[in-house]
Amino acid sequence: MRKFFCRDARFSDLTTIKVGGYIERFFQPATKASFINLLSEEKGPLFILGSGSNTLASDAIFSETVIRTRFGGVECVKREREKTYLRADAGVIWDDFVRACVQLGMQGVENLSGIPGTVGAAVVQNIGAYGSEVSESVREVEVWDRLQKKVCVLDEPSMEFGYRTSLIKEDIKLQSPYAPNPRFVVLSALFCLSSKNFAPIKYKNIADYLGKPMGSVGKLWDIRRAVLSVRGSKDMLEDPARYRSRLMANMMPERLKEIPLPPLSPNPNRDSCGSFFVNPVVSPEKADLLPLGAPKFASQGKVKLSAAWLIEQAGFKKGYPLQKDPNARAALSTSHALAITNRGSATARDIMDLAHKIKGKVREKFGVNLALEPVLVGLEEK
Ligand SMILES: Cc1cc2nc3c(=O)[nH]c(=O)nc-3n(C[C@H](O)[C@H](O)[C@H](O)COP(=O)(O)OP(=O)(O)OC[C@H]3O[C@@H](n4cnc5c(N)ncnc54)[C@H](O)[C@@H]3O)c2cc1C
Hints:
The chain has 382 residues and is of the alpha+beta class. It has three domains: 11-68, Uridine Diphospho-n-acetylenolpyruvylglucosamine Reductase, domain 2, CATH 3.30.43; 72-261, Uridine Diphospho-n-acetylenolpyruvylglucosamine Reductase, domain 3, CATH 3.30.465; 281-377, UDP-N-acetylenolpyruvoylglucosamine reductase, C-terminal domain (Uridine Diphospho-n-acetylenolpyruvylglucosamine Reductase, domain 1, Alpha-Beta Complex). The protein has eleven helices and 19 strands. The chain has helices at residues 11-14, 32-41, 94-103, 119-125, 167-173, 204-210, 220-233, 254-257, 284-288, 307-313, 348-366; strands at residues 23-27, 46-49, 55-57, 62-68, 74-79, 83-89, 128-129, 132-133, 138-145, 150-155, 184-194, 198-200, 217-219, 281-282, 296-299, 302-305, 330-332, 340-342, 375-377. A hairpin with a 2-residue loop joins strand 7 (128-129) and strand 8 (132-133). The model has no long low-confidence stretch (mean pLDDT 93). Bound molecules: flavin-adenine dinucleotide.
């Protein structure tokens, strides 16, 4: 008989946006072998959860199985003169992996410091920040294939990484028979990092923080420090107080173990999924229809637009609330136009209502469809 990790877990306890209903069956296997065992036995729909930092779940009871990944470690597979190959299990906390790479003088993921979540989800989402994406360092991904019921390896081209997406994430959007989870479940990822203690500075905010010109180099540890500080100034670090909860304690990144956890009066901007909208990528013809002054960036023959600019120009300033009420339950972050925040008692419906209001207005004003970044569980995007 398998043991439930917890009988009364709710998505609101397990996600950074602190929204979502009770979960009928919640497991947390302690090893990769028991994770695979559980996956092979589960026939029905299931949801794989990491740190819950990119998940928005319905307020209704989730009557299926949730398996949270928190197992494994990091192993050095091969060391060449200039390259090091590290394998990290899906349940490793992403920022612990980054921190270890920086400490060991391995370049490639330092700009992704402080992004909440696990290694497994980082690969699914192709996380990115400050000029880097995780796909630049991933060489292969070990997965459990729910169709063939066996362990397989997807090399980097088969992962079809794109801007905040991958083969695995696209499968979720296609409403596969394995929904709400994709066919492939990540077990581990192989990373190739450069054996260097320094890296180019790719982003203006980071260059300004370090007082160096763009394109110059900085020590890995300095870049990590700069990224964490810039993220903090935009409320783009998760709320450390969430790790006071019994259900979250074992998910805490090492970085936070070194500071006293703040009291449970979190910063109102912090209960979010990070960016709620991805920057739209459109055809050059469509981009030409936008007003002068709209930020545009070339992206593989297409044009990437700034979702934050579109949102602000459509009338949603930072801090915009769902209801015209100082106590609105859902509002845009006052520090970041892309983040929808739970102000304390928001429901999933409140969050989706605000998202749909913003999407509708941007579509009406600019003819551009904004896609949502978080993965929805039991909710539909209009
Ligand atoms: C404050 C804040 C800042 C953020 N900043 C950034 C940023 O700068 N850049 C960025 O890209 N993202 C950012 N994010 C989003 C988020 O941190 C990332 O998407 C992260 O990778 C999610 O990890 P997680 O473990 O919390 O995923 P979860 O929310 O637990 O899961 C996300 C999705 O991945 C799937 N999944 C999880 N593990 C596996 C697995 N092993 N196999 C298959 N599927 C799996 C889940 O089923 C779900 O569909 C931010 C979020 C917050 C709250």
